[in-house]
Task: structure prediction
Amino acid sequence: MVIIHSPVMLSEVLSFVPEHAKLIVDGTLGHGWHTIVMAEKFPDAKIIGLDIDEKMLAKARLRVESATADVEGWELLANRIECVQKSYADIQSILWDKKCDYILLDLWVNLEHFLATDRGFSLKGNATLDMRFDQGKTKTAEVVVNTYSPSDLKNIFVKYGDFTEKKAEELAETICRERNKNRIVTTFDLKKVLGLCGLGNSAVAVIFQAIRIEVNGELDNLETFLSTFAECLNVGWRCAIMSYHSIEDRLVKQSFQQLVNTWWFALLTKKVIVPNYKEVEKNKAARSAKMRVIEKTAELRT
Ligand SMILES: C[S@@+](CC[C@H](N)C(=O)[O-])C[C@H]1O[C@@H](n2cnc3c(N)ncnc32)[C@H](O)[C@@H]1O
Result:
């Protein structure tokens, strides 16, 4: 059976796209699900799809080509989707002097990353500790685990993994002690070391997630985006962000609130949107998704 990533809250994402959107940015293209459906539903829109992972981008390109083959006017649709290997954090320089009408961020990883057992994201397969979305970067999970100081490791586990200070310190010290004996090179090496502190698979998965967030600078990227995207939107148009981690959702919530308080923005989701139980039943990966949407109502206050 082929398991592929399913688009989360697809109908909710579509419901917020302004009807006459001309330029949409899908900042986390992934498999291109959301993008393809937006392109089909909004025939006037051009879509720029960004992903920093070149392997994901290659898959998205294939999907765009095959999906468009089924659709009437497919040539037009294919021409309207541009897949670019860039980070959504660079949205300002990517758009340059243009502004867009809808920005979508569907954060986190693609199921594909966990299924690719050779990339070190999953603790199920034995692979080199890599975890980079962007293979052009030099910081891998192996670098983090073998070179970070005990206090830096501890901070990552507390901040991104929600471990207590005491447990995080024990984990960091155990990693540092064991790496002095033998470099921790693979996912199974790390799993074994964490096992010495009594961690079961679900706690190990949280440590893997914390290391992945650090490797890819995921929160830094989100913060950069949140401090710049407002300039990139046309008046009357929207930004929707789906997050899967409480820290990400908090950043989005605070930043949107600040824009409402200090700029001409309106919050369209007074209450955060979550997937309904039917979607969660079909797609477990959707269970922690939270979507917030904001609309720009006027240009910068002077
Ligand atoms: C949850 S998936 C997106 C799924 C997509 N909405 C779909 O329907 O197929 C998140 C994607 O964001 C990508 N990604 C992670 N950090 C990124 C960044 N800073 N800039 C652009 N893409 C990023 C990952 O490689 C992954 O493919």
User: Anything to note?
Assistant: The chain has a mean pLDDT of 92. Residues 10-112+219-296 form a domain with the Rossmann fold fold (CATH 3.40.50.150).
